[in-house]
Amino acid sequence: MATAQAHTETKWWSGGKSPFNVEYGKLMMWYFLMSDAFTFGAFLISYGTIRFSQNYWPDPNAVFNAFPLAGHANLPLAFVSLMTFILIVSSVTMVLAVHAGHNMDRKGVIKWMIWTVLGGLAFLSCQAWEWAHLITGDHAVMINGQIENIGTTVTMNPWGPAANVAAQAGEHVGTPGPVAFGGYFFGITGFHGFHVASGVGINIVMLIMAINGTFERKGHYWMIEKAGLYWHFVDLVWVFVFLCFYLI
Amino acid sequence: MEHAIQEITFHHEPGGKEVVSKIIKTTVILSVITLIELGMGLGMYAIPMAAGLKLFLKGVIVILSLAKAFYIVGVFMHLGEEVKNLIMTIVVPLMLFVWFIAAFLYEGNSWKNLRNTYSPKQAVTAPAAPHDAGEHH
């Protein structure tokens, strides 16, 4: 195969060619993504540090157990699983768009980019619902001897250990949990959601350029490849957000 | 534009059906790993188990997530097909995470232990002695 031969015989650093065998924009996208990985990594590690420093941390199965239109049914992890699969599927449609681009298949690129954009919008809608549900969903909590109904925000956390209130038989009354829980959850999923939103924006621009035939005139679909790298990175980050906030 | 194309020494073969089947195979692997992770996460919730076993399951879930990351980066982002030099400049700096994670989690744990030892009242974020809350009522 010609590819294998090029690998062994090329002197990459002798000048006159790209030593990494990629064009400039793609290389810079890789380095941007690496730096972005450090940003997300710093956030997640900071979350881990605070979590390790607490004697008590809320159980994600108890916090994330709601599903749209399912009322008060206890469905731990169900909704976030749906979100995860939406993101995986939109990653797959993105790969197929890149593949169609390699084959100069304009119709294929347009079709798969539309699906990718729809997947991104579906994910964002799910996240909007989840945030709204957490912020507005009240829970009875014992604060300074008074029972108050509070939602999950960056300053309030109703997910502490259960309060021992004999008088309130039948109704679950909790205590305030660590405040950092809401701050980290909304901060990190929000930063990820911001990446998804900008990714959807980039993908829409790519879709319009593909429809207008810009890439056809350029003679290549490299821009789709670079947008694809960004989109897959968003999926990659979600793997770790999903791991740190919902699974463990 | 001509110049940019000449800089590239070789192009990857566009490929046909085998690329699509590789994508489908990776999708199946990612979905199955996610389902296993979910099963373990729900198992930890539904089945009462020892803290040690729980920690072990969490470790397995972390390793499975790293496997997912490997497939996304290697196959979907095509990093596996790039020149080795490029792969190394991306992957080697990320090795710093090994130390970051170890050092900071150790730090957090030490923080907790010091507070529990020297300042037990502040150590608890939520009232640990529930009867206190009851008395006020």
List the helices and strands and how they pair.
The complex is a heterodimer of chains A (248) and B (137).
Chain A: H1 2-9, H2 24-52, H3 60-63, H4 78-102, H5 106-136, E1 139-143, E2 146-150, H6 180-211, H7 214-218, H8 222-247
Helix pairs in contact in A: 2-6, 2-8, 4-5, 4-8, 5-6, 6-8
Chain B: H1 2-7, H2 17-46, H3 51-76, H4 84-94, H5 96-118, H6 120-123, H7 130-136
Helix pairs in contact in B: 2-3
What does this structure look like?
The complex is a heterodimer of chains A (248) and B (137). Chain A has helices at 2-9, 24-52, 60-63, 78-102, 106-136, 180-211, 214-218, 222-247; strands at residues 139-143, 146-150. Chain A is mostly helical and 248 residues long. Chain A has one domain: Cytochrome c oxidase, subunit III, four-helix bundle (Four Helix Bundle (Hemerythrin (Met), subunit A)). The radius of gyration of chain A is 23 Å and the shape is elongated. The mean pLDDT of chain A is 89. By secondary structure, chain B is mostly helical. Chain B has helices at residues 2-7, 17-46, 51-76, 84-94, 96-118, 120-123, 130-136. Chain B starts with a helix and ends with a helix. The model of chain B is unreliable at 126-137 (pLDDT under 50).
Summarize this structure as a short list of keywords or feature phrases.
heterodimer; A: mainly alpha; two-stranded antiparallel sheet; 8 helices; elongated; B: mainly alpha; 2 domains; 7 helices; flat
Q: How many domains make up the 3D coordinates of chain A?
A: 1
Strand-and-helix sequence of chain B, N→C?
A: HHHHHHH
Global outline of chain A: elongated
Can you tell me the CATH topology of chain A? Four Helix Bundle (Hemerythrin (Met), subunit A)
Low-confidence stretches of chain A: none
Give the strand content of chain A. Answer: under 5%
Hey, which two chains have the biggest interface? Answer: A-B, 80 and 70 residues
Largest sheet of chain A: 2 strands, antiparallel
Order of helices and strands of chain A: HHHHHEEHHH
Low-pLDDT stretches of chain B are: 126-137
- Number of DSSP helical runs of chain A: 8
The count of helical stretches of chain B stands at 7
Number of strands of chain A: 2
Q: Residue-averaged pLDDT of chain B, rounded?
A: 83
**End-to-end C-alpha gap of chain B:** 77 Å
| Largest sheet properties of chain B | none
Principal-axes geometry of chain B comes out as flat
Assembly state here?
heterodimer
